[in-house]
Request: fold
Amino acid sequence: MNKPHIKIIAENRKARYNYFIEDQLEAGLVLKGTEVKSLRMGKANLKDAYARVKDGEVFVYQMHISPYPFAYYDNHDPLRPRKLLLHKREIKRLISKVNEKGFTLVPLKIYFIAGKAKITLALAKGKRKYDKREAIRRRDEKRDMERARKEGYR
Reply:
């Protein structure tokens, strides 16, 4: 049994630094043709992107997909809101979680799986400044320990 090929287009690396990731789910994207072609070229950015539930549907905002350079006419708006495809029960669960204090929906990565564009959405809680400093300190300690271990083998 072979697994379908996954081609990662863009990742939001800052999300894990700025948020505590509580839960993740995969959603489909409603895209125009020029957006799909631009994604296949790897022209996407999730840096400032966020998702919201509006009228029982989930939309992702501020996700930048560059205009397709070879489109003659009818190119897309790079920052337009894009609808996400989720089951109704998933949307209801997201609504209940987002209404809790401090939870937000953050896109983590966009990828193609079996020819379909997908996005990984995270239910996240924002980190405070001292949480971020703690993460940096832990990462530095881990790097120093690894360096000392490697030097010990020499």
Q: What stands out?
A: The longest strand covers residues 19-29. The chain has one domain: 6-126.
